[in-house]
Specification:
- The chain is of the alpha/beta class.
- It has two domains: 232 residues, Glycogen Phosphorylase B (Rossmann fold, 3-Layer(aba) Sandwich); 155 residues, 3-Layer(aba) Sandwich (Rossmann fold), CATH 3.40.50.2000.
- The protein is 41% helix and 11% strand.
- It is built from 17 helices and eleven strands.
- Strands 3-2-1-4-5-6 form a six-stranded parallel sheet, sandwiched between helices.
- The longest helix is centred in the N-terminal third of the chain and has 16 residues.
- It is globular, with a radius of gyration of 21 Å.
- It starts with a strand and ends with a helix.
């Protein structure tokens, strides 16, 4: 196969696609990944053919992070021209040779590149988005509804792209020469092939999903075996009991400094050492108290097996890393699908109850104690995940799609 994999967004959106490409290469296929420019070195380290896409929006997020609502509104005014520039980069992909396109829905243009190429379009989904079910409501729904409305709730997914629909329609005609038959991304994905890239041990397929929608398992990069920790991190880990990990990625809430103060006070109350990951500004400590080590970024697959509890925002990338590490979790969800995964982890018995509402030091300290009791369940689930090969399953599904054997 010559698969074209297109994704945009943060590292959590890109790394699973790189993992799939790495697996495709090992299986003798010829994948190409198109993704934001800043992740090209990561692709090069794994020998993956990579087409860099405009990544101004990531730069804008970096600039606006932690600067409050006014900065976010100002940034939003610049988004549509940036979206068009990303789409124009995607249009250039239609000049390449490919026999299938796997796209992240954030690309907005992925299925239309496949349409121009005349090849199948497969939505590579890191969370449930387009295949409706009566078993649970859409994970991106911001409020709870009676169970009877579960299936209807999935209509909200189509609204994600609604602000850009006119832009997409114009771009599709101008850049790709496709002037008729327009369907929104949500409609294309709902009627087309999908790859659900999470473990069925985390979320099995509901009974009303087709066989083709069954989760493949996570798309994971190999462990960072060649990565060497900084001396100060290695020493910190050796000097005492396994610490707590706390990191919230780019989910900063309204006040990162207040969040940091709450986390530090909770650690003091619980008598815990900790590694704090500042990430994209989710935590912003002004100092480094005793028993706390502040780092910017450490590979999760290296660090999480060495900690006692992982405190995070519930993004699916961090969820997957903590599950594979067999570490119990405490989740403070902020937006989107994060509350959905937080609730799912708690029901599986590998995490404390989600910390919703106002976060207090006492509440977080108590959650740390409760999560410790989930350690054996977390280790057991990690053992089951180790038996999966989500990438191999995804490759088989792609091969079946091209051979006409897909369900």
């Amino acid at each position: 196969m010559k698969p074209l994999l297109i994704t945009v967004g943060s590292r959590g959106d890109v790394q699973p696609y790189l993992a799939l490409a790495r697996g495709l290469l090992a299986a003798g296929h010829q994948p190409v990944v198109a993704a934001p420019r800043r992740f090209q070195p990561l692709a090069a380290a794994h020998g993956i053919d990579y087409v860099p896409l405009n990544d101004e929006m990531l730069d804008l997020q970096d600039l606006a992070r932690g600067r409050g609502a006014r900065a976010a509104v100002t940034a939003a005014r610049s988004v549509k021209p940036m979206v068009r520039r990303v789409l124009d980069d995607e249009a250039e992909l239609a000049h390449r040779e490919a026999d299938v396109v796997v796209y992240h829905p954030k690309t907005l243009g992925g299925p239309y590149v496949a349409e121009k190429l005349g090849v199948p379009a497969v939505a590579g989904l890191l969370l449930p988005l387009y295949v409706p079910t009566a078993a649970f409501a859409s994970p991106i729904l911001p409020l709870r509804l009676p169970r009877a409305f579960n299936r209807a709730s999935w209509r909200i997914t189509a609204m994600i792209e609604a602000p850009y629909r006119g832009l997409i329609r114009t771009w599709r005609a101008e850049a790709l020469g496709l002037t008729s038959g327009f369907r929104p991304v949500a409609d294309v994905a709902r009627r087309g092939a999908v790859l659900h890239a999470w473990s069925p041990h985390l979320l099995p397929a509901p009974a009303d999903w087709p066989r083709s929608a069954r989760p493949t398992g996570f798309w994971s990069m190999p462990a960072a075996s060649g990565w060497a920790p900084p001396d100060r991190l290695a020493r910190f880990l050796e000097e005492g009991d396994p610490p707590v990990y706390a990191g919230f990625g780019s989910a900063v809430g309204r006040d990162p400094r207040a969040l940091t103060a709450t986390v530090l006070e909770a650690l003091r109350l619980a008598g815990r050492r900790a590694v704090l990951a500042t990430g994209w500004g989710g935590l912003r400590p002004g100092t480094e108290p005793d028993g706390v080590l502040v780092v910017e970024d450490v590979p999760h697959d290296w660090l999480l097996p060495r900690v006692a509890v992982a405190v995070h925002h519930g993004g699916i990338g961090t969820v997957a890393a903590a599950l594979r590490a067999g570490v119990p979790q405490v989740v403070r969800p902020f937006i989107g699908d994060q509350p959905f995964w937080a609730g799912r982890l708690h029901r599986l018995g590998v995490a404390a109850a989600p910390l919703t509402g106002r976060l207090t030091p006492a509440g977080l300290a108590a959650a740390l104690d409760r999560a410790t009791g989930a350690a054996s369940a977390a280790r057991a689930l990690a053992g089951r995940l180790a038996e999966e090969d989500g990438i191999a399953t995804a490759i088989t599904r792609l091969e079946d799609t091209l051979s006409g054997r897909a369900d």
